[in-house]
Design a protein that fits this description.
282 residues, 13 strands, 6-stranded mixed sheet, single chain, Cytidine Deaminase, domain 2, alpha/beta, 5-stranded parallel sheet, Rossmann fold, 9 helices
Length: 282
């Protein structure tokens, strides 16, 4: 549960519905909120809150916006379709001043970029917090999220798949794995979770994977090195649709460490398709 705070909250918003969800939760908690949308990424729904916009090259402008709101907490949340190339962007004076640091960050992997983003914002005197720390319903507690519960065979598959997901996370390969009838049939890599589920559906169609009815479990958990303040694994309506199309029985996630986006719609689709969702202790 989020705790009421006198500290102002700024939300740097990418795409999707989660930034607005976090803003509503914070306002309900009595917090002073401002949303700062990334142009070309953030949804227009942020306009229902006090808000500003900035472009990737306007980091000096972003620093001023955050400072005007007061030193407080900052959430970085939402999808980003286009990775910024600071070598080609039109930069404001603040961004020019930061350019050596930015080029260094963008030359490395996503995890380094995200860590760099945290350090940059915190160097301005703010504290970066996770969206789930503001809106606790974005993550699940241990137990079932759906009326349909896993059977004993499903729990065995869940345990096997979660073990595999944690193993590939340890080598920075992916966040998800699928087990059916005690056998690991898919591991996530660069294609992402939706891609893994599409691959399973295609293998079933081609006769490479066979089982009757619904069987098997998708398990998802964070990699050990992920900073969950800015890089939390997610499931959502598309995950349920993929599990349904692949003929799997359900989804198991690590409680408190996997975000459920569009929770109401996700659970509605799970109920409609007969897919269970279950959270296990990490």
């Amino acid at each position: 549960m989020a705790t009421p705070s006198d500290r102002p909250l700024a939300i740097i918003a990418g795409g999707g519905s989660v930034p607005a969800h976090v803003a509503r939760a914070a306002i309900q908690d009595g917090r002073q909120v401002m949303v700062v949308g990334i142009e070309g990424e953030a949804d227009e729904s942020i306009s229902e809150f006090p808000h500003n916009w900035f472009q990737w090259g306007q980091l000096g402008h972003l620093e001023k916006i955050l400072s005007s709101h007061g030193k407080g907490d900052v959430v970085l949340i939402g999808g980003v379709k286009t990775r910024p190339d600071f070598k080609r962007l039109k930069l404001d004076l603040g961004a020019v001043r930061m350019l050596p640091t930015l080029v260094s960050l963008m030359a490395n992997g996503d995890n380094t970029v995200l860590i760099g983003a945290i350090r940059l914002v915190e160097s301005w005197g703010h504290t970066v917090v996770g969206a789930h720390e503001i809106a606790g319903d974005l993550v699940a507690t241990v137990g079932p999220l759906t009326e349909k519960h896993p059977r004993s065979d499903d729990l065995k598959d869940a345990n096997r798949a979660m073990g595999a997901a944690r193993a590939i996370g340890a080598i920075d390969a992916g966040q998800a794995a699928v087990a059916v009838d005690g056998r690991i049939v898919a591991l996530e890599a660069a294609e992402g979770t939706d891609g893994v589920l599409a691959r399973i559906a295609a293998l079933r169609q081609g006769g490479r994977l066979k089982w009757r009815g619904r069987a098997g479990v998708l398990a998802k958990c964070p990699k050990p090195q992920q900073d969950l303040r800015v890089d939390m694994p997610t499931i959502g309506p598309s995950t349920v649709a993929g599990v349904d199309a692949a003929g799997l029985a359900g989804i198991v996630i690590e409680a408190g460490h996997v975000m459920i986006v569009e929770r109401e719609e996700t659970l509605r689709r799970a109920k409609a398709t007969g897919v269970f969702i279950f959270a296990v202790d990490g």
